[in-house]
Amino acid sequence: xxxxxxxxxxxxxxxxxxxxxxxxxxxxxxxxxxxxxxxxxxxxxxxxxxxxxxxxxxxxxxxxxxxxxxxxxxxxxxxxxxxxxxxxxxxxxxxxxxxxxxxxxxxxxxxxxxxxxxxxxxxxxxxxxxxxxxxxxxxxxxxxxxxxxxxxxxxxxxxxxxxxxx
Length: 166
What we know:
Blueprint: E1 3-7, H1 12-25, H2 39-50, H3 57-71, H4 77-92, H5 101-125, H6 137-153, E2 157-161
Antiparallel strand pairs: 1-2
């Protein structure tokens, strides 16, 4: 590992999570709602990739509770899913080379697919099952937006090579 990552300022991870909530709260036309990326989950995946020792499962749980309140879903539905996003990302991280884009895509596909599947199971158990395959469009929009979104999130940290000290 030739590069080290440090936060640009104290609270940068929390600021990026708040930023992802602002994106989640943006009003969209009804036709675009199914294409809304999973901003908060993508943010947690990003930080698991960049600073795995700094990411908190407790922060993921709290963010998930806020998503539950926003969506009006069962309290704990998205909280459980968000904790699983962080757990899976951290467990799969040693098996991947994060500098390779298709490894990032594989991680996002697996982790977000599991996130959406858990939410789908909970919605089905409570009688709120989406009737169509369009439920999965958010997974594909998240994959499409990942390179741009990870670039935006890179403004919250500084990458230094080991040669910057000289």
